[in-house]
TrEMBL record:
GO terms for cellular component: cytoplasm. [4Fe-4S] cluster binds at residues 129-130, 210, 213. This is Adenosine 5'-phosphosulfate reductase. Catalyzes the formation of sulfite from adenosine 5'-phosphosulfate (APS) using thioredoxin as an electron donor. The gene is cysH. Keywords: Cytoplasm, Iron, Iron-sulfur, Metal-binding, Oxidoreductase. Gene3D superfamilies: HUPs (3.40.50.620). It catalyses: [thioredoxin]-disulfide + sulfite + AMP + 2 H(+) = adenosine 5'-phosphosulfate + [thioredoxin]-dithiol. Its main location: cytoplasm. One of its GO terms (molecular function) is 4 iron, 4 sulfur cluster binding. It comes from Asticcacaulis taihuensis. It holds the Pfam family PAPS_reduct. Binds 1 [4Fe-4S] cluster per subunit. Belongs to the PAPS reductase family. CysH subfamily.
Amino acid sequence: MTILIDILKDQKKTHGSLRAEALSAAWEHLTALEILQKAIQEEFVGDITLSSSFGADSAVLLHMVAQIEPNLPVIFLDTDRHFFQTLQYRDELVAKLGLTNLVNLKADADEASTEDSKNTLWRTNPDQCCDLRKVRPLNRYMEGYGAWISGRKRHQSATRTRLPIVEFDGKHFKVNPLATWTAEDIDAYFKNHDLPPHPLVEQGFPSIGCFTCTKPVAAGEDARSGRWADSEKVECGIHNPIYGGDGI
Ligand code: SF4
């Protein structure tokens, strides 16, 4: 029986990977809005969420999703270590765009008190801290869904240069409608749709995470180089590469 279960699991993985490859090929040349429409209204109906950091570029996908399905679950991983400007920006965007299903996910209280009683885990073991405050809450919530949308882009860092439009991680599909977008595309979308910028962008933060682990970057530097700037860490764990091993 165990062997049969393993075979079925492998088949599910193979089927998921093939489906992701086929969708990536079919959607590569669609616009981001078209990709979202396909994903939300045809391919993963009622089975998909959007994960948003409410960071520098987040308003683009949030604006598109609001046009298609304002009640789509929008997941915000509330680590208790966000800049207050991010929390304000989150609330401002949700109200302005008419999003009606914001889901704030936090670490399990018992796990947090056991593993991070001194609130220093971000410094002593940032991988465990991200796992506690981001990966596990997201995984628990996503037990009820088959796919999620992320705002990652190929230009953002060396770890994302081969990012496909659709990935499959063995359990969930990830849809990346902005994979091919450049920084100029993002700027143009903000201007064309009169979207408010995250208030920290003008202070030198092109990529914004927890205040404990994010620094401003100089002009011309990798946009994500201010994240975990004093360590080898480059991803929080919810986006560890599954598409070729360019990075971690
Ligand atoms: S980014 Fe830093 S503070 Fe935030 S969850 Fe990860 S390690 Fe913890």
